Every structure is written in structure tokens, then in C-alpha cells.
Amino acid sequence: MQKIEIYTQPGCPYCVRAVQILASKNVAFEEINAPHGTPERQDAIRRSGGGRTVPQIFVGEQALGGCTDLMQLDASGQLDTILGKK
Q: At what angle do helices 67-76 and 13-24 cross, to 10 degrees?
């Protein structure tokens, strides 16, 4: 299975929701603390192709986007396929 990473920052309700969605899928993922101005945040921006908001979610090198994108993938059933659950 590919590595799953989520860049978050404290106090972000969208980050909390995205983490909950990933946790509900029973997959291992790494949560990376990436507040404004940190090297981790710059890494998330670079990897996502310019996405400046958090969360930023990656499966391998594939950028999934943020919380809304993750919710849409989940609702359509595509998230399970991406995560290797189907």
C-alpha cells in the first residue's frame, strides 16, 4: 500500500474532519503538523502544486486535495479505490 500523508494545523476543523474520514477507513496514515510559515507547510504547498490551505492529503505522490475533495471522493466511492480498499 502507498504511504498516506495529511498535512494539518492545530485548530483547523477541516483538518479534524479529514483525519476522521481517513481513520474511519482503517488505513495507516501520517499526520504532519504544518502551521503557517513552517517548512512542512512549504512542503505541502510544493507537493500539492500550490495549494495553500490545510489539510492537504497525499496517497503516494498523488495529491488528493483538501477536506472537501476527500469528502467528495468518499461520497462517490472513489476514495476506497484510491486507498486500495476495493
A: 30
**For residue 86, what are the contacts with CB-CB under 8 A and spacing of at least 6?**
77, 80
CB 32 within 8 A of CB 40: yes
pLDDT in tens, 38-57: 999 999 999 999 999 999 99
- Residue 22: half-sphere exposure toward Cβ, Cα within 13 Å: 28
What does the alpha-carbon distance between residue 9 and residue 83 come to, in Å, rounded to a whole number? 23
- What is residue 85's predicted lDDT score, i.e. its pLDDT? 79
- Stretches where the chain sits below pLDDT 50 are none
Q: Give CA–CA dist 12/69, Å, rounded.
A: 16
CB 27 within 8 A of CB 19: no
Taking the whole predicted model, whether its pTM rises above 0.85 is answered as: yes
